[in-house]
Amino acid sequence: MLKLRAMRVSCPLVRECMAEFLGTFVLMLFGCAAAAQVKTSNETKGQFLSGNMAFSVGVMSAMYLTKGISGAHLNPAVTLSFCVLGKVSWSRLVPYSLSQVVGAFVASGVVYLVYYDAIMTFSGGVLTVYGRNETASIFATYPSDYLSVGRSFFDQVVGTSMLLLCILGLEEKRNTPAPSELVPVVVAGVVLGISISMSANCGAAINPARDLGPRLFTLAAGWGTEVFT
What we know:
mainly alpha
């Protein structure tokens, strides 16, 4: 008991950042692992819906894991909106966002190690962003060839706005708030709905950490600067 007490983190901000890191890690591990399984098996061990469902389960699991500590933002866009609305102190914005990005980065690394052999076999040992055997999309999202930069931006604004609109309504007392215990389940349903309806253009990232963390990982792991083209 004395050892456990000595290991406790006394600083609330550090605890909350650790929760955001862990929650985003869990979310991304579910989602990217599913994407790796689908991609490297040529959809013989999963399909488009598999990744969408995995990310939704990841969101739900991460929220149950961390909601009581940090609020389970798991997304810089959520943290920013809560700061704007006065639900969270602005001093939390940067630490939370960095924790989320790092959590996504580390999760991508773990998925890469778990599926390393499969990725190398599928890609022929050549890590690319485009082409039939590209593997960068396992980790980050990329726009369809037909899409302009402006339309890509609009696509992400609409998708992220839908997410935030639905999340902010869940605890609105003047409306019909969801029971606290079921909020993670409802949020998972919202994420699933957005994923299966708004993925065609840009992959429905709707989360800067979900995209930036894995993109930085692929930059460092061998895919090169092409991941930012």
